[in-house]
Design brief:
mainly alpha
């Protein structure tokens, strides 16, 4: 009705016509428009830009409708090409408040799986909605994830809701010359433990 021949456009994922169809669907938001946009996300990898532009269109219609099809978006997140996965992750992050109550378990399973995505950007975007679900399994998955070797400050913030604490290099007796260790130990036998405690008052007292 809005765009004659849209089925054929979806079947071919025509690079010129797909964006035009998306603009028309966004201008006339409805459940049917959202269904077609989600089909474009799952079936047309070239449409999913992975940088937020497509997500804005999806969210605009989803907010007008008041919900979104969790299972179909989840399919794009778990099985899509790189740009599809990033686009789906950004969408889920920004549309969490539209989650249908009966779909929490489906989303939880999807987001936990996405925490192991090969793309760091996907993992960063899915951490926040998983934290907001606040389930035992989801919280445990996030706790494991923030201990990983390639965690960024953004991922830590999305996963915990707070800034990442800065790691302070630990010191030991090898950090100082023998003379220094001997001299300071006479005045403060536990000075190594004090320096590593990050207790500002105790450290200042060593001066």
């Amino acid at each position: 009705r809005l765009y004659p021949g849209f089925v054929e456009i979806l079947e071919t994922c025509n690079a010129e016509l797909i964006p035009r169809l998306a603009r028309i669907l966004v201008a006339s938001p409805s459940r049917e428009s959202l269904d077609v946009l989600v089909a474009m996300l799952t079936d047309c990898p070239t449409w999913a830009d992975g940088n937020g532009g497509v997500t804005v269109q999806l969210q605009s219609v989803a907010r007008a409708v008041g919900t979104f099809p969790v299972e179909r978006v989840s399919k794009a997140l778990l099985d899509g090409a790189p740009n599809q996965r990033v686009t789906a992750a950004i969408f889920l992050n920004g549309s969490f408040d539209l989650l249908p109550p009966g779909e929490r378990q489906v989303l939880e399973k999807t987001l936990i799986s996405a925490l192991t995505d090969t793309q760091l950007e996907v993992r960063e975007w899915v951490a926040s909605p998983l934290r907001r679900l606040d389930t035992p399994a989801g919280n445990a998955a996030l706790a494991r994830a923030i201990e990983g070797p390639d965690i960024t400050d953004m991922f830590y913030f999305q996963a915990t809701g707070r800034a990442r604490p800065r790691r302070v290099r630990q010191v030991d007796t090898s950090s100082f010359g023998p003379g220094t260790v001997a001299a300071v130990s006479k005045l403060a036998p536990d000075f190594i433990a004090t320096l590593n405690s990050q207790d500002e008052r105790a450290i200042i007292a060593l001066r």
